[in-house]
Amino acid sequence: MKADRFWSLWVLVLGGLVIAAGLAFAFVVPRFFPGIQDVFHDSFGAGTLAESLGKNDRRHVDWLYGVLGGVMVGWGVMLAALAYRTLTEDSEWIWNTMLTSVVSWYVVDSWISLSYGVVPNILVNTAILLLAVVPVVMRRRRSISVRP
Description:
By secondary structure, the protein is mainly alpha-helical. Helix content is 84%, strand content 0%. The protein has one domain (2-143). Helix 1 packs antiparallel against helix 4 (55-86).
């Protein structure tokens, strides 16, 4: 039971990190650290984002970062809420929901990133996938070994 609590807290923290990253993408990166966008922009050609886009195009990219940030906040809230729920209720559907959510996001996001050649995003996605899947795998492993 103590191990289950550890993994629940792990996912709760992961949800908080996704929320923080979403808020950063929405409000901080475009205004204060636009150079971070160049890490991903480099996959599309030479030059910085600011050098290769006009003012309206740049505003469009900043808007997309805001929308992306909002989606990340919502996803992080869902992960954190489900993880919090596992602290008081041991329901397999909660863990299955988290796993399904993370894997479906990973497949779609990474496929799009691969088709556009945006390797840095695939690397970030893979790190998040591992952080999210490890608790589910470890919890299932423990529950299988505990069964009579």
